Amino acid sequence: MTDQQPSQPGAARPTGKRQMTGVGTTTASSYEAKRVVKADPEDEKPGGGATSFLPEVVSEMRKVIWPTARQMVVYTLVVFTFLIVVTALVSSVDFVAGLGVEKILSP
């Protein structure tokens, strides 16, 4: 491969500076100007008060995707299995550590 350009008349030639891959044309100042969110004066007070709490809880609870009965059984079995495995692991480490301590401390 050579760096020579074809000398055909009317061939498209790139003009200007090449842009690096992955670099945008947005300047830092224009980016910062877009990032600034102007708050309404009504949104300045913290929280929504005690009267709006319960309706917000109800609306959020409606958004929850509740598991089916079959999923709950599967999740429960997974948790119990995990508990049995971890309990067996901890008890075996405790037993082996106890044997080691007895071996070291006994005359």
TrEMBL record:
Query: What is one term from the GO cellular component aspect held by the record?
Result: plasma membrane
Q: Name one GO molecular function term.
A: protein transmembrane transporter activity
Residue ranges annotated as transmembrane are 72-97
Q: Which UniProt keywords apply?
A: Cell membrane, Membrane, Protein transport, Translocation, Transmembrane, Transmembrane helix, Transport
Task: Spell out the InterPro entries in the cross-references.
Answer: SecE_bac, SecE_sf, Translocase_SecE/Sec61-g
Gene3D superfamilies from the xrefs? Preprotein translocase secy subunit (1.20.5.1030)
Q: Where along the chain is composition biased (Basic and acidic residues)?
A: 32-46
Q: Which family does it belong to?
A: Belongs to the SecE/SEC61-gamma family.
Q: What is this protein called?
A: Protein translocase subunit SecE
Q: Gene behind this chain? A: secE
